[in-house]
Design brief:
Blueprint: H1 12-37, E1 41-48, E2 51-58, H2 64-91, H3 109-112, H4 120-124, H5 130-138, H6 146-150, H7 153-164, E3 170-175, E4 178-185, E5 188-195, E6 200-202, E7 206-212, E8 224-228, E9 236-241, E10 245-247, H8 248-269
Antiparallel strand pairs: 1-2, 2-7, 3-6, 3-9, 4-5, 4-8, 9-10
Length: 271
């Protein structure tokens, strides 16, 4: 091993990067949870021609800085994975400074194993021993199947961190599960329920319910409109839109998943 290159792998840097990302995420979740708890939205009814529409409006603006924070969290976690590969090369007896090591994240086995004279796998894991490479291979999202791979925490991490390098993430309110529209008036209360299989963005000014007046009569004067979730509060989260929608809850899953990966390899290099 050349002069100046550590002779023993040390994952302290990984831990520090993840701890910083977790600290920033906790702060972000506190701010966004407080924002949602304050019910910064309202639902209003509009009659246009023969159509009744319910429109979602934000009374308090979303902070653009939350999108910047989400991008920085993803970048920090991705950096921890890259640092992990660098240390695995050291553990393998190689000098990682001679190459450009990086933690690979691929949705296709074919793409993973191609890339010119050397495959992406070979270039990104230069100097890493086969015993470590085999474990990194198993972590690739393409092993989960087509549908599951798209939502794998590593896939989401790659999408967010790659997008963040070029532009800010758009901040939105995300509907998490079941959304119930409540129409309360002196004659009674009507409910309309919508179920979302996955988180959906809900933007300021968006029409969330529309029906011809021939199917639903105009609401009586004094009707109050509201939103209910499956519990006492709406199932909302703050979402970040780049190439896809990811929620604060999704960022939490990413940090936990990568922390588990670092734990796993720390046990391997300690034995």
């Amino acid at each position: 091993m050349s002069q100046g290159t550590p002779s023993r792998a040390d994952l302290t840097g990984c831990r520090e990067k993840l701890a910083r990302a977790k600290e920033k995420l906790d702060s972000l979740k506190f701010d966004t949870t407080s924002y949602i708890a304050g019910r910064p939205y309202e639902v209003t009814n509009e009659i246009a021609g023969d159509t009744s529409r319910l429109r979602f409006t934000l009374k308090q603006p979303l902070r653009r800085s939350w999108g910047v924070d989400a991008g920085e969290i993803a970048t920090g976690v991705r950096s921890a994975l890259d640092y992990l590969v660098y240390q695995l090369a050291i553990d393998s007896g190689a000098n990682p400074r001679t190459g450009r090591t990086q933690f690979p994240i691929f949705l296709s086995d074919e793409d993973y194993r191609k890339g010119g004279r050397k495959s992406h796998r070979e270039r990104m894991l230069a100097g890493v021993a086969q015993r470590h490479r085999r474990q990194i291979d198993k972590l690739q999202p393409f092993h989960r199947g087509v549908q599951a791979a798209v939502n794998d925490p590593l896939t989401v991490l790659r999408a967010v961190s790659d997008h963040e390098k070029h532009k800010d993430l758009h901040v939105t309110v995300a509907v998490m599960q079941t959304l119930t529209l409540r129409m309360a008036h002196p004659g009674g209360t009507a409910y309309y329920r919508m179920h979302f299989a996955e988180a959906e963005p809900l933007n300021d000014g968006q029409v969330i319910f529309e029906m011809p007046l021939s199917e639903v009569p105009p609401p009586p004067p004094g009707t109050e409109f509201g939103i209910e979730g499956t519990g006492r509060t709406p199932d909302f989260d703050i979402g970040y839109v780049g190439d896809r929608l990811v929620t604060a809850e999704g960022l939490d899953r990413i940090v936990l998943h990568v922390s588990g990966i670092v734990d796993f390899f720390e046990r391997r290099i300690s034995t």
